[in-house]
Amino acid sequence: MTSSPESGWAVPADADSPHEGGFRARMDITTDRGGPRYGEFSEEIRRLMDLARYACPTPEITDELIDQVRALNKRLEDVQIDEWRSPAGTRIDLPARGNITLPPYEISEGGPDGVVASVTFRPFHLGGNDAAHGGHVAVAFDDLGGMASALAVQGITRTAYLTVSYRSLTPLRTPLRMHTWVENLDGRKAFVKGTLHDGDRLCADLDALFIALKPGQP
Ligand SMILES: CCCCCCCC(=O)SCCNC(=O)CCNC(=O)[C@H](O)C(C)(C)COP(=O)(O)OP(=O)(O)OC[C@H]1O[C@@H](n2cnc3c(N)ncnc32)[C@H](O)[C@@H]1OP(=O)(O)O
User: Fold this and answer.
1) Is residue 177 lining ligand 1, measured as CB closer than 6 Å?
2) What is the Cα–Cα distance from 80 to 188, expressed in whole angstroms?
3) Confidence (pTM)
C-alpha cells in the first residue's frame, strides 16, 4: 500500500491483496494490529472530531492547528495499509471493531436471536438541536443489522435495502440499546428488523434486506 502523490490518499496495491470477495480477507482476525493502545488512539481521534465539530478558533489558532494536524497526517501517511490489514475494522476487541467511522458500540449479545449492543452517538454525530444525525443512526443499523444477518446465514451478507423510521429524537452522549434480528430467512435473503431505544423510549426502528453473497461475489 502506498499513498497517491496526487491526493495523498491511500491506494490499494492489489498484487498481494488477501481479499477474495465479500467484506473479508483470507486471513485471521487478530487483536494485535496497532498495538495494545490502539483503542486509546481511536478514542483520541473521536475526541478530536468532537472538539473540532464545536470549535470556533481564532484565525491565529486555526493557523496553529493546521500545522499540528498536517504533522499528524504526515505521520499517519507513513503507516498506510490496505483495508484488510488495517486495525480499524478488524480489532474485534474494541468498540465497533476499532472502526472510527462507525458510531462506537459494544455488543452484549450476538447469536440466533440477533445482536444487542450499546451504541453511543458522539458529539460529532450531531444532526441538529443536540440530536444524532439520521444518517449516523442508519449507519449503526446497517452495521448491526449486517451482523445479525451474517450470524443467521453464517456467511457474508450485503445490504439490498435499509429503511429507518425515526420515531423520536436520538440523543448524543447517551448509551442507547440497539437490537437487530432476522425476522425471516428465505434462501439468500435475510429480512432484518431492528430497534433503537433510549431507556423505554423508541428512537428509531429498522426494516432491511440483506443478501448472502455467493462465493467470490464482490
Ligand atoms: C459484520 C459486518 C457487517 C457490515 C455490514 C455493512 C453492510 C453494507 O453496508 S453493504 C454496502 C451497501 N450495499 C451494497 O453496496 C449492495 C449493492 N448491491 C449488490 O451488491 C447486489 O445488488 C446484491 C448483492 C444486494 C444482490 O445482488 P445478487 O447477489 O446478484 O442477488 P439478486 O439475484 O439480484 O437478488 C437475490 C434476491 O434478492 C432480491 N433482491 C435483491 N435486491 C433487492 C432489493 N433492493 N429489494 C428487494 N429484493 C431484492 C431479488 O429479487 C432476489 O430475490 P429472489 O431470489 O426471490 O428472486
Assistant:
1) no
2) 35
3) 0.92
